[in-house]
């Protein structure tokens, strides 16, 4: 009845948004403090200059205030007064959320995904550690604000950082949804940890952002590639099948059908009860399904051709 999404790394690409931000802020802090401190700032934030990617850490999981506080501690450890450190951090800080298309990249066709959820009477919430101002800008730019029932941000009053359950319970209470009927979707251990600690119905980890399988598996009930793949986990089989089309290497979301009558094929599918049952047997092909056809048969084909 409710899906709670994290934002960065779950709905939008974390790296294209925050890697440039990390470099800009680190350079600004170093210049204002007159300290050779950029690498220490990067380490604190969780930014790798070699790969130019963000890894699990403060930037990926903490609120703006927590990050600022830790940066102040870093400058204080370098000999600056706390007052001067706060002045530098405040002056160097800027909102990372941006409406620049070069930086703001949706993970998948989010408008279609949200339309599908709304079509199936599933409410949508976003819970992020980022500021409300930046979050609203991002969601409006992506055209998603019209589909979202509730947004909880890191600088809102009466909130607590993930993985504490407070924000999930706050969303469920406001939208009048029992926690066991809600799902949390996110790319970090803190995201799925919030779902777990709040005792939500499902905690789903996505591999589109910061966390890898090892980071997510301890708290996640399921781990999927990205949010496009959540439908089979939250909708009956007879319902989610109509929302996907398949290419050679991927599946694509389809807009919900708005006609008054369903096609004969869809109607027959809905009436066929076998699709809603658990199966007793799975039959696998071998080559190309369980093992790589190319590595096994490429040399074989070459030898056959030579003969």
Automatic annotation (TrEMBL):
Top-level lineage group: Eukaryota
A single MF term (Gene Ontology): phosphoglycolate phosphatase activity
GO biological process: DNA repair
One Pfam family linked to the record: Hydrolase
Signal peptide extent: none
Protein name: Uncharacterized protein
Organism this protein belongs to: Lottia gigantea
